[in-house]
Amino acid sequence: MKLLITGGAGFIGSNFIFYMQQVHPDYELVCIDALTYAGNPETLERAQGQLRFFKMDISDKDAISSLFEEERFDAVVNFAAESHVDRSIEHPEVFLTTNILGTQALMEACRRFGVGRFHQISTDEVYGDLPLDRPDLSFDEDSPIHTSSPYSASKAAADLLALAYYRTYGLPVTISRCSNNYGPFQFPEKLIPLTIINALRGKSIPVYGNGLNRRDWIYVEDHCAAVDLILHKGKIGEVYNIGSSSEQSNLDVVRSILSELGKSEALISFVTDRPGHDLRYAINARKIQTALGWKPKTEFDNGLRKTVDWYLKNQSWWENILNGTYRNPARLLSGVGAQLTLF
Ligand SMILES: NC(=O)c1ccc[n+]([C@@H]2O[C@H](COP(=O)([O-])OP(=O)(O)OC[C@H]3O[C@@H](n4cnc5c(N)ncnc54)[C@H](O)[C@@H]3O)[C@@H](O)[C@H]2O)c1
């Protein structure tokens, strides 16, 4: 199979590349990524097998069309996105361009060049939030779309567009909506890596509001396994929720990390809440479990320990982000290993 993975220099996309290289060593993998602030080419130096990389913006229709014409992919998995809610509140436009128009450019190219599958990586945030005092409630695939931030609205728009491309043009589309991921190679702006790194540097750890907002956490490798399964066994035109029923409040996540690192809770600093901050996400993942036999393998405590350990052992990876050298093109080229071909 010749597979295009977009956004592969980011957190989940890179983990997916590494996962696919292990599980399907015979697959031909091509990655495109615009290398925005969130894309780190250094991450892809860890690729274990062959990988071709093109620096490309998914919303550049002409470049995308030429690439598809040249490469003739069997399938596309679209991870590329602007992904940070806070940034979407400050600068919504780029979220619309990448997350909506970029997805559309990819689907047009899939349509034009007969790609056998377009898989859209979406998020549980398209369902909005649930009240904190109703632990009995969760979102299934038929829950209404009810977005809170420009980020989630742009992801929801892309989902609807993908379903429209399936219905109108017969494009073989699948969609997955996953809960909050954590694990290696996550950009330091997100809660778990931010907490680990700030704790290691003795800096204060910002927690929004009272910290009681709850998220359903999934170890990134479990997400990758679910996407692989959907790609091979998923039904065209279907949406699959992915979640591991590991609900935690933000405050508890921070406390667990501090305890793991033996650091004081005095580092916690409660800051003004995010506007429109979702209270609680909870995913009902029964469909993918019963229809495709997927199950998450990593318990939250174990996954968090592995993640903390990874950030302890890979200090130079995140230090290069903090000091900005990860964006230096000279570094990018000097860091190219034998496995990774850059275009
Ligand atoms: N992180 C989570 O908890 C989570 C949960 C559910 C769904 N998702 C979805 O998973 C996907 C990946 O998320 P992530 O956390 O790895 O994000 P990330 O921000 O770490 O990575 C995104 C990648 O996309 C690239 N990119 C951004 N704009 C681009 C463009 N116009 N063209 C090409 N590449 C571009 C960036 O350079 C980066 O490498 C996103 O679609 C996100 O909505 C994330």
Automatic annotation (TrEMBL):
Biological process, per Gene Ontology: nucleotide-sugar metabolic process
Entry-linked PANTHER family: DTDP-D-GLUCOSE 4,6-DEHYDRATASE-RELATED
Keyword Lyase: yes
Protein name: dTDP-glucose 4,6-dehydratase
Cofactor(s) required for function per UniProt: NAD(+)
Leader sequence segment: none
Matches recorded under SUPFAM superfamilies: NAD(P)-binding Rossmann-fold domains (SSF51735)
Residue span(s) of domain NAD(P)-binding: 4-307
Enzyme class, broadest EC rank: lyase
EC number: 4.2.1.46
One of the record's GO molecular function terms: dTDP-glucose 4,6-dehydratase activity
Family, similarity comment: Belongs to the NAD(P)-dependent epimerase/dehydratase family. dTDP-glucose dehydratase subfamily.
Catalytic activity: dTDP-alpha-D-glucose = dTDP-4-dehydro-6-deoxy-alpha-D-glucose + H2O
Gene3D superfamilies, A to Z: NAD(P)-binding Rossmann-like Domain, UDP-galactose 4-epimerase, domain 1
Keyword Lyase: yes
Keywords associated with the record: Lyase, NAD
NCBIfam families linked: dTDP_gluc_dehyt
